[in-house]
Amino acid sequence: MRKMKNLNIISADIGAGSGRVILTAFDGKIIKSKEIYRFINNSVYLGDTLYWDFLNLMLELKNGFRKASEAGDGKIDNIGIDTWGADFGLLDSYGDLLANPVSYRDNRTNIAEKHINKIIDRDRLNDLNSSLTYTYCTLFQLYYIFKFRSEFARLTRTYLPIPNLINYLLTGEKVVDQSILSGSQFFNIKERRYRKDILKLLEIDSHILPEINNAGKTIGKLKKEFARSANLNDSTTISLVCSHDSASAVTGVPLDTGGLDCCYINSGTWSVIGMEPEKPVLAGDIYKYNFTNWAAFRDRNMFVKIINGFYFIQECKKIWDSEDNKKSNYSEFYNNITLTSLSKSLINLESSALVGQDKKMPAAIRDYLKNTSQIGDFSKNDLILALLQSMVLEYRIAIGELERLSKAKFKKIYMVGGGSLNRIFCQWISDCLAKEVYTGYPESTINGNILAQLFALGEIKSIEEGREIIRDSHEEIVYYPESLSEIDWSMLLEKYIKLKNSYK
To answer: Tell me: the pLDDT tens digits for 220-238?
Structure first.
């Protein structure tokens, strides 16, 4: 395919809370990206069911595309879309969406899980899929529909995960990539195929499944009516990127060639700690430590553990912004966290005492600290310090487990996401883990989305080539372990492990 120069491409990255549209210019050597539009992605209760406001999501995407077209002087060559995982839409025989997609946070997944556990237990599901079963996985939602909404199920002809549903509505093409199927629990990561036997056992019709494709391919052109309403040229194409945002994020991390002496931390609302192994890691006790295998770009693999990240701080920020009558964006918030002193407190980030509370998050954390007999002034700064110190210790535990399970020894950690913007936090990680920490690539999900588009357009021949473009397009920052750190991380680790074991 002939290489193009001066490309303008759009990356739409939609999370389970907000979405954004990014315009990227590529001159053949480097990329320059700019956020054009950000919007809220709300879930809405109708009756007893928690739905996504999917119609508004499509409207907001159109608004973002229109603004991106204006910023790109009307020239948009290609679009790639990634979203959160688990959720999906169902089409009828006419190709129409049967209903608004339901959120993975809806209680139907808990109901389905109880029924499925009587038919096939979690350990068996883990083994059949070569990946860890989460309560919010797609399988539980599909089972609920076929078990308790049989008339609705009979109308269903096609299942499409959210990003692929959006692609279908934009192009008319029904395609799905491997990455978005990773958390479905009816897709085997090792063999890269649907587990139709699981669906048959649960009496779910496997004929609704679309053909599996590889990311990094052009799907088709925008529908003319949509292109006109978004002020886009109807020659604009849509490419299949890594539809799952976590897989896009890993694709966009500029790991060293081979990637076996380095791991990564995607530090955002959730923290994703992992590596890019040549094959899925199938050591006997990986699920015991909450690690899972997921599919990434084409034949690439992710071996990851997901833990709570900046979620608690973000929830506190909402309250503090309201109390102070101000609002800062998250990039500013991450960057401006000041770590002027050390907290005497630690917080078990996996504690159920902080989840599902009716009370405001700062109050829930203060109650947790009091209930665990910890000492501190419990001020805003003290809470932030306690959460960040605890996050660093969770990273140390997780990467220690990662090395043990994969039999690897990492020299470098590539850190991306919002957490990588705070220099003191990054230095703490380097000191605590005694490893070099490489940052400067906070927007790894967007970068991965971009690389898949460039591959589809024939601009790059491999992800390694694309990662060199990422390096050339950003200013890398490296943190080295300081031998005279003011924090005794080993002592804090011992205290943290005791806290985790004594108070859940």
So the answer is: 999 999 999 999 988 999 9
Conformation bin of residue 427: beta by default, left when phi > 0, alpha when psi is -120 to 50: alpha
> What is the residue-wise DSSP string for 365-377?
HHHHHHHTT--S-
pTM of the model: 0.92
DSSP 354: G
Strand order of the β-sheet with 412-416 is: 291-295, 301-308, 270-275, 262-267, 412-416, 436-439, 477-479
Structure tokens at 412: 């470098």
Q: What is the 3-state secondary structure (H, E, C) of 420-471?
A: HHCHHHHHHHHHHHCCEEEECCCCHHHHHHHHHHHHHCCCCCCHHHHHHHHH
CA distances from 497 to 350, 400, 494 (A): 12, 14, 5
SS (H, E, C) 96-146: CECCCCECCCCCHHHHHHHHHHHHCCHHHHHHHHCCCCCCCCHHHHHHHHH
Residue 3 has a pLDDT of: 57
Residues 419, 425: contact at Cβ < 8 Å?
yes
Question: What pLDDT shows up at residue 322?
Answer: 86
Alpha-carbon gap, residue 73 to 23, rounded angstroms:
11
Give me the pLDDT at residue 4, please: 57
The string of pLDDT tens digits covering residues 96-112 is: 999 999 999 899 999 99
Closest CA to 160 of 251, 247, 95: 95
Q: DSSP 3-state assignment of 272?
A: strand
The 3-state DSSP composition of the chain as helix, strand, coil percent (nearest 5) reads 40, 20, 40
pLDDT category of residue 270 using cuts at 50, 70 and 90? confident
475 three-class SS: coil
**Where in the chain are the domains?**
7-245, 311-391+488-502
Extract the tokens encoding 235.
């020659």
pLDDT for 478-502, tens place per residue? 999 987 778 889 999 999 999 998 8
Residues 6 or more apart whose CB falls under 8 angstroms from that of 104 comprise 16, 86, 87, 136, 141
* Long-range own/partner contacts, residues 352-357 (CB < 8 A, 24 or more apart): 352/504, 353/503, 353/504, 354/312
Side chain identity at 272, as an amino acid letter?
Answer: V
**Assign residue 255 a region: left if phi > 0, alpha if psi is -120 to 50, beta otherwise?**
beta
Q: What fold is seen in the domain 7-245?
A: Nucleotidyltransferase; domain 5 (3.30.420)
Residue 197: what residue type? D
Q: In the structure, what pLDDT confidence band is assigned to residue 356 with cuts at 50, 70 and 90?
A: low
pLDDT for residue 284: 75
Q: Count CB atoms within 10 A of the CB of residue 3.
A: 11
Give the mean model confidence (pLDDT) for residues 466-480. Answer: 96
Report which secondary-structure segment, H or E, holds 248: helix 245-251
Q: What would the DSSP string read from start to end of 68-86? A: HHHHTTT---EEEEEE-SS
